[in-house]
Design goal:
Layout lengths: L10 H8 L4 E11 L5 E10 L5 E4 L1 E4 L6 H13 L15 E5 L15 E9 L10 E7 L1 H4 L2 H4 L6 H11 L5
Parallel strand pairs: 1-6
Antiparallel strand pairs: 1-2, 1-4, 2-3, 2-7, 5-6
GO molecular function, one term: hydrolase activity
Pfam family, one: DUF4916
Protein name: NUDIX hydrolase family protein
Amino acid sequence: MIETTPGWFAPADLEQVRAHLPIVYVQAVPVRVDAAGEVTSVGLLLRISPDGTITRSLVSGRVLHHERLRDALLRHLEKDLGPVALPHIPASLQPFTVAEYFPTAGVTPYHDPRQHAVALAYVVPVNGDCSPRQDALDLVWFTPQEASSEAVMQDMTGGQGTLLRQALAHVGCLI
């Protein structure tokens, strides 16, 4: 198979890279805001994990070689939320946190059995119509209080619930 998309590795090559180097990711917490800029709802994707369980997740994906962070965020938001989600990428690309995922559970709150990954995490307001695409089954909007509930946290894996709570604290929705 010939790879025609620049920046993508063949599956075997990606496994080799993942075994030796941290991979850079962007993660986004899609939110709806009111006229005052207050977060009114948080969008979480519903997915089927490789082991067959249904989980909730954030928008997430790798940054390609020679790709700007802004472009990576837009690409993954469009991939997961659809082409008319109308995300508002912040003028400053200062993440609210950096999440370091390890293949060994317990090193940090974040775990990815495939790799060591470094994720720059952003809260991104979206104004348009969102419809899940790719491997997402659905997109559900929660109030910030519902999103931070134990019931929702139990559906999130790999430390994404921790990341979600950090995002909500960052925008003033958790005390």
